[in-house]
Specification:
Layout lengths: L1 H18 L8 H23 L7 H9 L7 E3 L4 E7 L5 E7 L4 E9 L4 E8 L16 H10 L3 E8 L3 E8 L2 E8 L5 E8 L2 H4 L12 E5 L4 E4 L4 H4 L5 E8 L7 H6 L56 E5 L5 E4 L7 E10 L5 E3 L3 E4 L9 E2 L6 E5 L4 E6 L7 E19 L2 E17 L6 E6 L6 E8 L18 E2 L9 E6 L5 E10 L5 H6 L15 E7 L8 E6 L7 E9 L5 E3 L3 E4 L5
Length: about 600
C-alpha cells in the first residue's frame, strides 16, 4: 500500500508539473518568494491566534509576557509607509516584512518619541520545507509556529539610544525580515519606516547643506530665527511646511519627541497674522525626565513589572506650524530666560518630518528700573503702568524699632511686597488706605515693590516713617466706606444719607453733582479716584464740611440731609475725610435720585 501510494504521489507530481511549469525545480526561487509571502500571512494569522490582550488579572498578564508562545506580537510593516507604534515597558514588539528578490536595497528608519529604545533587525532563516516544496498538504500549526519562534535568524543591525537611526543596505537577500523593538525605561511611542526603494521614495524632507538654525535678532522679549530652506520643497515640488518648537529645557531630536511632551489637547496653531508672528503665551515651569538609559541590557529583560505613568501637567512647550517661510519672529518671551528652539521640515502629504540642528539663546535682561527713595514721614506719589511694577527704597538714618508704612491705592487694587535686607516681610493686595507695622532693625534697608492692576494704570500715595503713629498723615477710616441713602426719606428736593466714622476726630466734607439719568455703576467706578481731594471739585458742588468722631465705634455714624435738589434728577454724592495734615480720602460715591412727584 505504501509503495503504491508513493507511485501515485509521483504521478500526481509529474502531472502537476506539466500543468504548472513554474513548479519545476528551476523555478525554486520563485516558489521561495511565494513561500515568503505565505509565511508572512501565516505569521499574521498566528499572531492573531496567539496574542492575548492584557487584562485586569496582573498575574495572568505577567505569565503571558514570560511565555512567548502565548504572547506573540507579530505585525506587517508595509513597504514605503511610516507606521506608529506603542510599547509597554520591558515588553518587546516584533514586526515582519518580506524582501521578494535578491540584491534588493533596503532602508529601515526608527524614530524614538519619548524614551530611549533598543531595536534590532534580523533575517529569518526558515527551513526549505517552508518554501512551498511539499505535497500541498499544510503542516501542523504547532510545527509551523515552532519554525518561526525558535529560529533566531541572522542579526543584521542593532541599536540602543534615543536618536533617529537608520539601517541602510544597497543589496540584501530575499527573505523574511524581523524587526524587534523594546523600551526599557517606560511605556513609549515610536515610529518606523521601511522601504525597498529608498532612492525613489525619499519620504523624509531633505536637509540643506547647512542644517543649522540661526538666531538673527535678540531682544528682551523677542527673538528672530532663520534657516536655509529644504531642497525637497522647491526642487522636488513636494508640499513642505516648517514647524517651530520652543521650550525651556532642551532641544528635541524629532518632531515625535516634541509632540510626546505636548498635551493631547494642544493642536497645530495656524500661521499668525503678518506683523506679529507669535501669539502671547505664558511659559510655566515644566521638568522633563532624565534620558539616562541605565546599564547595558539585551532586548529581553528579566523585569516583568509594569509602570503606569500619570499624565503630566500642561507642558512648557509651544509648537507652531508657520507654512513655508524660513524666517520667524517670536514675541512675548520672558527677559533673561534661556529658551531652546527646534525647526522641523514636515512633508504635508505624508506627515513625515526631519529635524534641523536646533539652537538655544538667552533673552536680554530687563532694563533696570530706577528705585525711588522714600523720605521719612513724607508722602510720595507713585504712578504704575498697567501690569507693571515700581520699586521704592526706604533707608532710615537713625536706629528704629518699628516702621509704619502707609499705602493709599487711589484706583484699583495693587500688590505690595516689602523686603528688609532681602527677607520678605509682607506680601498683600491693597485696596484703599492700608497701614502696616513692620518690625525694625538697626541699619535695616527696606525694598518696597508695587505691582499694578491688570485692568489699567494705578496711582498710589505711599509714606514710610519711624515716627509715632499719632502723627500719621492719612486720616483714619472705618472698615466700611460706603455711603447709605435712606429711600423713605427721599423727597422731590432732598436726600438723606449716612456714613461711618472713627474714634479720631476728622473733618468730613460732602459734595454733590448732577449727572445724566443713564449714568451707570460702571461709569461711577471708572471715575472713582480716592486720591482726588476736595480741591479738585467746583465750589458750587460743595454741600458742607463738619467734624465728627465717637469714642464708641458702635455709635460712630453720622447723617446729613442734602437740600436744594430738583425733582426727578440724579445726583452723585461724595464724602471726603480730611486729616490734620491735609491729606484726604474719598468714600465710595453714591448715586441718588429725587422723587419726580411729591
Amino acid at each position: 500500500m505504501r509503495g503504491s501510494a508513493e507511485e501515485s504521489a509521483s504521478e500526481r507530481e509529474k502531472h502537476w508539473t506539466k500543468l504548472h511549469p513554474s513548479a519545476h525545480p528551476q523555478n525554486t526561487r520563485m516558489r521561495q518568494c511565494r513561500g515568503w509571502s505565505w509565511v508572512l500571512l501565516l505569521l499574521v494569522a498566528l499572531g492573531a491566534l496567539g496574542q492575548k490582550l492584557p487584562t485586569r488579572d496582573e498575574g495572568l498578564f505577567q505569565t503571558q509576557i514570560r511565555d512567548k508562545s502565548l504572547f506573540h506580537d507579530s505585525s506587517v510593516i508595509p513597504d514605503g509607509a511610516e507606521i506608529s507604534g506603542y510599547l509597554f515597558r520591558d515588553t518587546p514588539k516584533r514586526y515582519y516584512f518580506v524582501v521578494e528578490e535578491d540584491n534588493t536595497p533596503l532602508s529601515v528608519t526608527v524614530t524614538p518619541c519619548d524614551a530611549p529604545l533598543e531595536w534590532r533587525l534580523v533575517l529569518q532563516e526558515l527551513p526549505e520545507e517552508a518554501s512551498g516544496e511539499a505535497s500541498g498538504e499544510p503542516e501542523p500549526l504547532d510545527q509551523q509556529k515552532q519554525q518561526v519562534t525558535v529560529d533566531e535568524g541572522t542579526e543584521l543591525f542593532t541599536y540602543k539610544g534615543n536618536d533617529v537611526e537608520s539601517y541602510v543596505a544597497t543589496s540584501t537577500p530575499s527573505g523574511l525580515y524581523q524587526f524587534e523593538i523594546l523600551s526599557t525605561e517606560k511605556d513609549s511611542n515610536f515610529k518606523v519606516y521601511a522601504t525597498t526603494t529608498p532612492e525613489s521614495d525619499q519620504p523624509y524632507p531633505e536637509l540643506p547643506y547647512d542644517p543649522r538654525v540661526d538666531v538673527t535678532a535678540l531682544g528682551r522679549t523677542t527673538l528672530t530665527l532663520a534657516w536655509k530652506p529644504t531642497p525637497t520643497g522647491f526642487l522636488m515640488g513636494q508640499p513642505v511646511q516648517y514647524c517651530v518648537v520652543i521650550n525651556k529645557e532642551h532641544n528635541f531630536k524629532s518632531m515625535c519627541a516634541a509632540e510626546a511632551k505636548i498635551s493631547s489637547d494642544d493642536t497645530f496653531m495656524l500661521a499668525p497674522k503678518p506683523g506679529r508672528d507669535f501669539s502671547p503665551f505664558d511659559f510655566a515651569h515644566f521638568g522633563f525626565p532624565s534620558n539616562g538609559f541605565g546599564k547595558d541590557r539585551g532586548l529581553t529583560s528579566n523585569k516583568i513589572s509594569r509602570a503606569y505613568t500619570v499624565k503630566p501637567k500642561q507642558s512648557d512647550i509651544q509648537k507652531l506650524c508657520i507654512g513655508n517661510k524660513n524666517i520667524f519672529t517670536i514675541s512675548d518671551l520672558k527677559p533673561d530666560t534661556q529658551y531652546y528652539f527646534d525647526v522641523f521640515a514636515v512633508n504635508s502629504a505624508t506627515n513625515t518630518s526631519t529635524a534641523y540642528v536646533g539652537t538655544f539663546a538667552r533673552t536680554k535682561e530687563e532694563a533696570r528700573q530706577k528705585t525711588v527713595e522714600l523720605k521719612d514721614g513724607k508722602v510720595t506719589d507713585v504712578f504704575i503702568k498697567r501690569k507693571a511694577s515700581k520699586f521704592l527704597r526706604f533707608a532710615p538714618m537713625s536706629s528704629h524699632q518699628r516702621v509704619t508704612l502707609f499705602v493709599h491705592a487711589c484706583l484699583d487694587t495693587v500688590q505690595v511686597q516689602v523686603r528688609r535686607d532681602g527677607k520678605l516681610l509682607l506680601s498683600q493686595n491693597v485696596e484703599g488706605v492700608r497701614q502696616f507695622q513692620l518690625r525694625g532693625k538697626p541699619k535695616g534697608k527696606y525694598l518696597i515693590r508695587l505691582r499694578g492692576s491688570r485692568k489699567g494704570a494705578s496711582t498710589l500715595k505711599v509714606l514710610a516713617t519711624t515716627k509715632p503713629s499719632s502723627k500719621q498723615p492719612f486720616p483714619s477710616l472705618p472698615e466700611d466706606t460706603r455711603i447709605k441713602a435712606f429711600d423713605k426719606l427721599r423727597t422731590c428736593s432732598s436726600a438723606t444719607v449716612a456714613w461711618l466714622g472713627t474714634q479720631d476726630r476728622n473733618k468730613y466734607c460732602i459734595y454733590r453733582k448732577e449727572v445724566a439719568e443713564n449714568y451707570g455703576e460702571e461709569q461711577r467706578k471708572r471715575e472713582q479716584n480716592q486720591c482726588a481731594g476736595p480741591e479738585t471739585r467746583r465750589k458750587s458742588e460743595k454741600v458742607l464740611c463738619k467734624y465728627f468722631h465717637s469714642p464708641n465705634l458702635q455709635k460712630a455714624v453720622t447723617t446729613e440731609t442734602i437740600t436744594g435738589l430738583e425733582p426727578g434728577k440724579t445726583y452723585l454724592l461724595d464724602v471726603y475725610v480730611v486729616a490734620h495734615s491735609g491729606h484726604s480720602v474719598k468714600y465710595q460715591s453714591k448715586l441718588v435720585k429725587t422723587r419726580k412727584y411729591c
